[in-house]
Every structure is written in structure tokens, then in C-alpha cells.
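Quick one:
INPUT:
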């Protein structure tokens, strides 16, 4: 497997080995010792799958005070995936990275606790799987506005399909600091 660094050092792009032949393909979605040696030592406790049609944007989501780390992969289709550093006191606070994940490229992205996450579907539909380091808690569920002008995320769409909670989410500057994770060491 190949691990690619990003501009947000804690966020990693993983290119698992994919074995392809005339029958199709095979890959390991998760191998604890292999991923731990790559710096991903989170203990995953919940797996989620979402199915969305083209133009659906999910995010920017995070949980606080019960944060989740996530390992995300598109099993079918293609998505534009985004991670935003929302840790108060981080030297990269408010910075984001993006990566295209698809069934074809088999890439994964690891987004640790302390980051908001979102994606938009680029293909006709997408089936997305993600492992989480903590179970979902409704009382910790939070969102940021997907098109917060201060973040300046370069989404490849202007009018996505949104859930009401994503349409009405606050900008990052409007979230009280105690409702955000803190950078380690503060």
C-alpha cells in the first residue's frame, strides 16, 4: 500500500494494493497492523455506508465533544472528498484538502478526529464506505456550512443537493470555540 501525505499532515491518502484480473479485482479494505505501520492506529468501532446520486453533497460534518476519525473509500462511483482542520489553536485551522476517491482509483482517505468532513458525488451515483473510530452520537452531531466563504473550498459544483442541516449549518467563524475540538497541547 502507498501512503500519500497531504498539506494537512494528519490527513493521509492511502492507495491500497489492488489485484486485478479478468474476473475483477480484490483489495484489503482494512488491515490493522499494516495501517498502524502507516501511522493510522485508530481503533475503528463503527462502519457506515451511504448511497447518493450525482450532485449530492454531504457535509461538512463533525462530532463534538465525541469526535470521530474516519477512513473513507468510494466502493462505486466517484466523489470529491474534503477534510477541514477545525481544531482551535491549530496552525492549520480553517485549512482544507481535497481528494477524488473512486471505485476506479481505489484510494482511501484517513481523516482523524478534529477535522470536519464532506463530499460531493461526481458520478451518476456513489456508494461510499467509511470506518469510524467512535460511534455516532446525535447529541454530538455538528455541521459547518459547505460553502463557507472564509474556507473557500473549491467544490466542483455550485448548486448541490443538500440536507436541511447542511443548508442551514453555520460558518466556522460563528461556532463557539467550546463547540470545536482543540489542537493537542493547548
Amino acid at each position: 500500500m502507498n501512503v500519500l501525505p497531504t498539506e494537512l499532515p494528519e490527513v493521509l491518502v492511502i492507495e491500497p494494493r489492488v489485484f486485478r484480473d479478468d474476473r475483477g479485482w480484490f483489495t484489503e479494505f482494512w488491515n490493522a497492523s499494516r495501517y498502524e505501520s502507516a501511522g493510522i492506529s485508530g481503533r475503528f468501532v463503527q462502519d457506515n455506508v451511504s448511497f447518493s446520486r450525482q450532485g449530492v453533497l454531504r457535509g461538512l460534518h463533525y462530532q463534538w465533544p465525541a469526535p470521530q476519525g474516519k477512513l473513507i473509500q468510494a466502493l462505486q462511483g466517484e466523489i470529491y472528498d474534503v477534510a477541514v482542520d477545525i481544531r482551535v489553536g491549530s496552525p492549520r485551522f480553517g485549512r482544507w484538502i481535497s481528494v477524488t476517491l473512486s471505485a476506479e482509483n481505489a484510494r482511501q482517505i484517513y481523516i482523524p478526529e478534529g477535522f470536519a468532513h464532506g463530499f460531493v458525488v461526481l458520478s451518476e451515483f456513489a456508494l461510499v464506505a467509511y470506518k469510524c473510530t467512535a460511534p455516532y452520537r446525535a447529541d454530538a452531531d455538528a455541521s459547518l456550512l459547505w460553502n463557507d466563504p472564509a474556507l473557500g473550498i473549491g467544490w466542483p459544483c455550485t448548486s448541490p443537493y443538500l440536507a436541511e442541516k447542511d443548508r442551514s449549518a453555520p460558518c466556522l467563524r460563528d461556532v463557539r470555540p467550546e463547540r470545536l475540538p482543540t489542537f493537542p497541547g493547548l
